[in-house]
Amino acid sequence: MVITTTKTSQENVHSTFASRYVRAPLPRFQMPPNSMPKEAAYQIVNDELMLDGNPRLNLASFVTTWMEPECDKLIMSSINKNYVDMDEYPVTTELQNRCVNMIAHLFHAPVGDNEAAIGVGTVGSSEAIMLAGLAFKRKWQAKRKAEGKPFDKPNIVTGANVQVCWEKFARYFEVELKEVKLMEGYYVMDPAKAVEMVDENTICVAAILGSTLTGEFEDVKLLNTLLTEKNKETGWDTPIHVDAASGGFIAPFLYPDLEWDFRLPLVKSINVSGHKYGLVYAGVGWVVWRSTDDLPDELVFHINYLGSDQPTFTLNFSKGSSQIISQYYQFIRLGFEGYKNIMENCMVNAKVLKEGIEKTGRFDIVSKDVGVPLVAFSLKDSTRYTVFQIAESLRRFGWIIPAYTMPPNAERIAVLRVVVREDFSHSLAQRLVSDIEKVMKELDDLPPRAIMKAVHVAAVADETEGYKGNGGHLKKSVTDTQREVASYWRRVVKEKTSGVC
Ligand SMILES: *Cc1c(COP(=O)(O)O)cnc(C)c1O
């Protein structure tokens, strides 16, 4: 990149817009040899970012996109604090401990009113799950070693609907992931099938409170009952982890009587994303353990850091403090009442959206009324176009809505999913319904050939689905057409199916 050097004050006057400094494409591979004025750098970066989507219209994500200005202020004033410097920032450490206590109580951990709970703040649920998984693995290994049994083939039982971080955990930490397959019409882990899959090498069964794909809560209570029976029969003591990344801040407020947490004896650890319905910007998650017995001491590092003992159990060392500080802000600012209000409001808006979508008569609703506030819906008839085209077309209106196929064995079902967050209002819900209607009308009016042409080309080339082109001629039957359309879009989104977060 070439930056014109401004020689005279006269030229400076004209060099206010950053593009005037840039005479060549922006650097992408190597650091530029020379510096540039800060205003120019700011403008270049800022302008390039204009092409990103608008986070508020990003309905693909559970992650918080709006906080109060007071919180933004707290974040900016703590942005230069390294969380790990606990000795220097003892108050920040104290705030994280208070958050852990509050969450543990919310999840009915068996700790006294003034007793410190066991848990830690993380970057998100993924890190939380790595830590919880490691604790299970280590505990299981220790037990097997003590019994003189092999301990080299640990596995975890989950539903095929697990979030990608479980696959990561399995691969990074060498634990086999045994997935209970789904069925068309049933998109969460079946507790009975899960318990059937448990064997002596199972380090835990992971249940999801708020399936990423449909928002549905898995039946942790039934899982607890069935697993207790199996443990009795076999003499094992297979525990449960609850991945409450999104549901952990929904269920306690909306369904206080639903037993999914430490009220169930086999639930030994729970993770929740502070940056989802915990209402904090991206960068905070939590994991809490039932008791000290469930967190092997050998995983906790005691570091003498600048003069004091600092127990740590995280994957990373340094990280920002702002998210932890703002989590504490949200807890005391909103209180139980405030969280309940917000979650109720999200549910109402999800209902408005769901009813609007149902009213078009063109979709089946796949999400449940009890669960995380989201609406997942599939096209009743995808012979002419699919949810993937609807998602693409909605982009033009600024809406970012993911479309994806379900995991095995429900791959034939493709859905759109709209996550309802606090900042998604009633009127935005109505607006979205009317934009969906517009898009459908446009797609309905397209000549079928225009849609099918692209599909045909791709379908012929698609060998992975086992489809063989029929001498270059389009097939006419409904099933074939449906298969072609589905196969085309599967190719398009092959790498994207687990991209929803
Ligand atoms: C979002 C999500 C995760 C991953 O959480 P991050 O906080 O984004 O790391 C894990 N499990 C479920 C069920 C989720 O919804």
Automatic annotation (TrEMBL):
Record keyword Lyase present: yes
Keywords: Calmodulin-binding, Decarboxylase, Lyase, Pyridoxal phosphate
SUPFAM superfamilies recorded: PLP-dependent transferases (SSF53383)
Known EC number: 4.1.1.15
InterPro entries: Glutamate_decarboxylase (IPR010107), PyrdxlP-dep_de-COase (IPR002129), PyrdxlP-dep_Trfase (IPR015424), PyrdxlP-dep_Trfase_major (IPR015421)
Keyword Protease carried by entry: no
CDD domains: DOPA_deC_like
GO biological process: L-glutamate catabolic process
One term under GO cellular component: cytosol
Cofactor(s) the record lists: pyridoxal 5'-phosphate
Catalyzed chemical reaction(s): L-glutamate + H(+) = 4-aminobutanoate + CO2
Origin superkingdom: Eukaryota
GO molecular function: calmodulin binding; glutamate decarboxylase activity; pyridoxal phosphate binding
Modified residues (N6-(pyridoxal phosphate)lysine): K276
NCBIfam families hit by this protein: Glu-decarb-GAD
Function (record text): Catalyzes the production of GABA. The calmodulin-binding is calcium-dependent and it is proposed that this may, directly or indirectly, form a calcium regulated control of GABA biosynthesis.
PANTHER family: GLUTAMATE DECARBOXYLASE
Record family assignment: Belongs to the group II decarboxylase family.
Name of the protein described by the UniProt record: Glutamate decarboxylase
Organism: Oldenlandia corymbosa var. corymbosa
